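Incident review: delayed structure delivery

Summary: a single-chain prediction request sat in the queue longer than the usual turnaround. Root cause was a stuck worker, restarted by the on-call engineer. No data loss occurred. The affected request and its eventual output are reproduced below so the record is complete for anyone auditing the incident later.

Affected input:
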Amino acid sequence: MLPNQRWQISPASPEISILSQVTGFSPLVAQIFINRGFSTPETANLFVNPESMILPPPGAEFKDLEIALSLLMEAIKNQEKIAICGDYDADGMTSTALLIRALRVMGGEVNYIIPDRGKDGYGINERIVKQMAEDGVALIITVDNGISAFEPIKLASELGLDVIITDHHDLPEELPPANAILNPKLLDESSLYYGLAGVGVAYILALSLAEELGIDNLSEQLLELFTLGTIADLAPLVGINRYLLKKGLRLLSKSEITGIQALMQVAGVSEEQIKLQSDDIGFKLGPRINAIGRIDNPQIVIELLTTDDQGLALERAMQCEQANSRRQELCKEIEEQAIALIEEKEESNLVPKHFLDWQKARVLVIGNKGWHHGVIGIVASRLVDRYGVPVFICTTEDDGKIRGSARGIKEYNVFEGLTYCHELLGKFGGHKMAGGFSLNIDKLEEFQNRLSEFSCQSLTPDLLKPLIEIDVIAKLSEITSNLYQEIDSLYPWGIENKEPIFLSENVRIKEQKIVGKNHIKFTLEQNRTEIQGIAWRWGEYLPVPSLVDLAYKLKENTFNGQTTLELEIVGIKQPENLTENLAEITTENQSNSIKKASFTYNKRHYYCSLWESLNELRIKNDQGKILAVKRGERIGLLGLTRENSQQVDVTKPPYNSLIKMAKQALNL
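Output delivered after worker restart:
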């Protein structure tokens, strides 16, 4: 079987030709501009050259910025204790490190606290506030949290502590009583600052304070941490994020921060690269930071990003490396167990089997006691990619309660789904594509029923397939180094600027083989244009039919000092124009002992041969399986090899129909 996907192809725009002529970009890239919402030459050129963007001053956007700066300058002047309350993900930890670095240079007496993932959960709480008050803290700054913490912030105010909230999460019905709130969600959606992550808000605060105090040697280090946190947090790469990231990525490739140098060293990211790509952060640096917050102590990352000691930095970077390896092992283990539960109907120690009938429920609720709560969100994302269904994955805590993570699909709202079940839940939160929740174990059955009720209202069965969003149809002859250079000018890739996906139709597969850990390497050809392709972790689909439509990303592959273009295949289908049922039947003149032919049946292609010396008919499908049956016998063999085959009754469907079609093709 080929991947069970649904493809969404962007319609060709009538504006392509004009946009291509005016901007000088190829029609293929002009279509990508239009798909991203940049349909005029002005907006397209601004997207390619974001550093020419004119930004309004932060103070004109964030109304409480002046108050926040006054509080900080007063605390620094009077040497009052400042405490940062961060978060245990990459955004929260880079935000915390950014403000620590900035405030220490400015002379502030600053410390920090990160909530414990297991004991505290997300964000500032009353325990933390009381601890800060006991420690003599005068000013609290929250980073990447706090906007929904009404009671803890109220308590801080009652205890005489000033509070600055820097956050980027959605706004609650009632804002907490902080002295100052900096949150881009308070701005108009058209604001260039609207897409800032938590680290972006911390960056604006720190840079504005540095300008007020006349300190000009901080901006590059702060921008490096902004870049690291923004990409690792999957923030939208438009507006001010894109403006700053273009420069930030160049700085990171030759970072002056000791901890980033050490992290790049253990992650195998070369400082000699001309340009550090966002993929290096998203797939190499970011996961190593996030792994600490998932399964270890966030203090490791804070020390990594704030120390100037090379020995300590390398030690902390190695701890990040070890945590990431452990995180990978846990994810692989849990993912394999989850797939076995779903596909092999194995027994879970937490959820009943009927929960796993996701086609009927239109949502997958899955879980097991003992799964690590720090990584189940990653596994949920992988299951969404595999099955194309919203996934709510859960495990148990030490107190016996259930804790879970949720990931959605394009047409589904995870937060609304959780809200639909709110009376069953202890804590819950999130947004359209992801969320977290907790509940008592005796509420699990009702929770699944309610989620299914919501999902059946939200989704039709045809949407329950992994979605491939295709930007533009291209011929292989159009895949050139010039096109790659044009595409490369649109980086960095991320939310709201996804890496473009191309579609090429009626591509012939000349060669295909397994390489590495179950990947397929292809040699592809279309109208005499030949190119290499790779499909990661697709070994289960080998062999692929010889004529296919391909969806792919464009990559450079450097091997033995030579750089070539390669297709990273993300989708594959048989062409729509394959003939229905029995179509063109070709009989080849072979030797007297073997007759060969081919035929198409039920949209699948088959090869058949009659081995007269053996009195045996063989039929091979497009996946490489062979049905072999001797003349006059009722039982045949089916499998990839004769040694590993199984016996089948060829008088029953579908084998009897295939044999009939093969006989017609062979003129028997």
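Verification: The chain has five domains: 12-47, 85-323, 347-463, 486-575, 586-665.
Action items: add queue-age alerting; document worker restart procedure.
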